[in-house]
Amino acid sequence: MANDLARQKTKARIRGKVSGTPERPRLTIFKSLKRIYVQAVDDTQGVTLAAASSLEKGLKETLKSGSNIAAAKAVGESIAARLKEKGITAVVFDRNGYVYHGRVKALAESARAAGLQF
């Protein structure tokens, strides 16, 4: 309970500083014990421009687990490809209060390697 409260405080602090635009959306992540999710959000209009998760059909069959570093890398590559199709190459990374380590770091680095700038 205490860890979740600390994450919520960190999340609120980050969201006060980070905002997405149509040209440079906010790339936010959520990780559960079994899955990892990412979406690109335009905060000016309040819409999601693209999303990816380890729960999707194409990824789910190829992954051994939806909650490991390999899954995070695959989801990072997937969201980068979807944003590049829409002509978006730069994003603002929102780690959503999570420590930049493990799955969060793997997702971010694979998205960068696939061509996103942040």
UniProtKB/TrEMBL annotation:
Residue numbers spanned by region Disordered: 1-20
InterPro entries noted in UniProt: Ribosomal_L18, Ribosomal_uL18_bac-type, Ribosomal_uL18_bac/plant/anim
Keyword set, alphabetical order: Ribonucleoprotein, Ribosomal protein, RNA-binding, rRNA-binding
Gene3D superfamilies associated with the record: 3.30.420.100
Any GO molecular function: 5S rRNA binding
CDD domains: Ribosomal_L18_L5e
Gene Ontology BP terms: translation
Signal sequence, renumbered to the chain: none
SUPFAM superfamilies membership: Translational machinery components (SSF53137)
Protein function: This is one of the proteins that bind and probably mediate the attachment of the 5S RNA into the large ribosomal subunit, where it forms part of the central protuberance.
PANTHER family membership: 39S RIBOSOMAL PROTEIN L18, MITOCHONDRIAL, LARGE RIBOSOMAL SUBUNIT PROTEIN UL18M
Family to which the UniProt record says this protein belongs: Belongs to the universal ribosomal protein uL18 family.
Subunit structure: Part of the 50S ribosomal subunit; part of the 5S rRNA/L5/L18/L25 subcomplex. Contacts the 5S and 23S rRNAs.
UniProt-recorded name of the protein: Large ribosomal subunit protein uL18
Organism: Mesoterricola sediminis
